[in-house]
Amino acid sequence: MADTDGLLDARTFTGGERPATGFHVKGAHAQDWGLQNRLARIFRPDNGRTVMLAFDHGYFLGPMAGLERIDTNIAPLVPQADAIMMTRGALRTSIPSHSTAGVVLRASGGPSVLRDLSDEHIAIDIEDAVRLNAAALAIQVFIGGEHESRSVANLAKLVDAGQRHGVAVLGVTAVGKDMVRDARYFRLATRISAEMGAHIVKTYYVNEGFETVTASCPVPIIVAGGKKLPEIDALTMAYRSMQEGAAGVDMGRNIFQSDHPAAMLAAVRAVVHDDAKPEEAHELFRERSAGSAAS
Ligand code: R5P
Predict the structure, then answer these.
(1) Cα(23)–Cα(19) distance, rounded to whole angstroms?
(2) By mean pLDDT, which of 49-53, 72-76, 111-115, 148-152 is the weakest?
(3) Which of 116, 146, 189, 242 qualifies as a FRET site for 288, CA 20 to 30 Å off?
(4) 279 domain residue, yes or no
């Protein structure tokens, strides 16, 4: 029991007009404390932005280039990431449990790259996600795909489970090979995920009208890197995404398939968190990669 002798009277009841508890993640002001806390493990409280390192590709692609050994290729990069996105198998086997990056777990799966990728199911129980201290669960949404309806239903089920346990859900916009990747499509797909309850939506950058995608989505948009590009091009895409309203990147191949993954991750961080211009970030990449085989 606390010592109650000499207690001071409460006397400071003012402190500015805005509530001191305003929340920094778009669309999440009405969420419960636990869910907000988990979102804050992904999006930095000082600027609402995130650099998420994605290495979940093996769940349908197997050991692709750069992901042959997650323990040696990826784990050393994790301290530089605000959040990491991977399967529970990769997390348990290959990522140190003292890592402080927000954990975003891949929660859907089923088909391999040899089959119809939209034929996915929920592939994790919320109880295991909580056991793994997940901040969010990521699920693919195939708008216009063969199994569109089931993928939307999967998202809704995961949102129900996430709301019950205070775990956020990331809706991943999946684009089929034959689909047009334009702002109109991404407005449709991202908005559907947000309306179904996703707390974060991932999509691709488009050169024309990307700001209409971010403006019409009521939750944060993060941008996938896509196929490996020259570093300056990937940094330019990240820069434009941020300037046009994205809250961060969820980047995989453009980091782990770079000859200098750590240097590239540092350059991406400069773009996302410091508003570095692509050329400045590329200079940082060159400095950090100079003289080392793979850093
Ligand atoms: C697809 O396999 C995953 O959702 C990836 O995490 C996502 O596409 C981001 O990775 P990348 O930057 O390589 O496209």
Answers:
(1) 10
(2) 111-115
(3) 242
(4) no
Q: 57 CA distance to ligand 1 centroid (A)? A: 6
Nearest Cα to 81, choosing from 100, 64, 97? 100
**C-alpha distance from residue 182 to each of 179, 207, 241, 252 (Å):** 9, 8, 14, 21
Q: Domain of 144: which CATH number?
A: 3.20.20.70
| 212 is a domain residue | yes
Query: Is residue 177 annotated as a catalytic residue, yes or no?
Result: no
Using alpha carbons only, how large is the chain's radius of gyration in Å? 20
pLDDT in tens, 22-63: 899 999 999 999 999 999 999 999 999 999 999 999 988 889
Residues 6+ apart with CB under 8 A from 4: none
Residue 226 CA to ligand 1 centre (angstroms): 6
Tokens linked to 7: 């207690």
Which residues, 6 or more positions from 274, have their beta carbon under 8 angstroms from its beta carbon? none
Best residue among 51, 53, 57, 233 to mutate for probing ligand 1, ranked by most atoms within 8 Å of CB:
57
CA angle 275, 276, 279 (to 5 degrees): 145
